[in-house]
Give the backbone structure.
Amino acid sequence: MTPPLISYSTFHRMGLTFRNLNSLLKTTDDFELHIIDSNSQDDTWEYIQSLNDSRIKSRTRFPINLGPIYPINLNLTRRRPDQYFIVLESDVYLYASDWISRFMKVFETFPEVGLLGVPRPIPLPGYEPEVVTIEKDGVSYNQLKHYEVGSIRDFVPGHCQCLRPELIDTIGYWCEENCYGDAEISIRINKYTSFKAGLTTNIPIDLTQTIPCENCEGIHLCKLNRDVNTCFDLRNNKHKNLDFSTINRWKYFEYFDELNQGKRSVYCASLLDPMSYSTHLYHIDWALENFNYYAENAN
């Protein structure tokens, strides 16, 4: 089987990236890694350039941050047709060296599973999705029970997700027209395709969000004046996802209204793939407005 493609996105927080990317590189399963740095202004890019691992197939640094969806879709254009696609954010620390095999076991056992994620290690009350446990031959996963548009809980969190190739053929890209990420793609899959979205039960992770400078494994690479700004301060000051989602919520609802009315298919096109938007409805003005929001407010 072709090794899965891992899309790894970074945005400041070099101390966290150093810790977590090192845990990824201890994985014993094969994979192809594509790293994108969205204009980090700490020492993240210098660290990424220092890595020496044959599984790293590309390293890209954007001169400007365009938000979280653009780098995922760029890496999706690099995927070969038979490759599983894994999205991994830089705040994920992986404890199990065979975590990819654990994903694949569920996909092999349950052909209806299109998207599989990893639950938050510490649940967020009121935000965790309701699930139904599906079990077969000693393998199980938690399938999303509901898929209501506008819900704050009916989706697989985006920090670590794996998608089946056949699902990608059906749904195309993450939606650039609303840029709602995990909150749109899980519902799109569960409600409008024959595939199911759910959560694994046996891939342990850590989602630590900050590390004190004195405990940082990458402090020897850090050139910041930490009395003024740490790498975590930089990220927090420029992290605009919540503000973006509040301003652009109407596009999320309008997208699903068009889907319900039959004006468009479940397939989402991308600005990065001209063929996709020449054959599918694509509001390029919405997408450009979304990317420009991040360009103007998150750099």
About this structure: The chain has a mean pLDDT of 96. The longest helix spans residues 284-297. The chain has eleven helices and eleven strands.
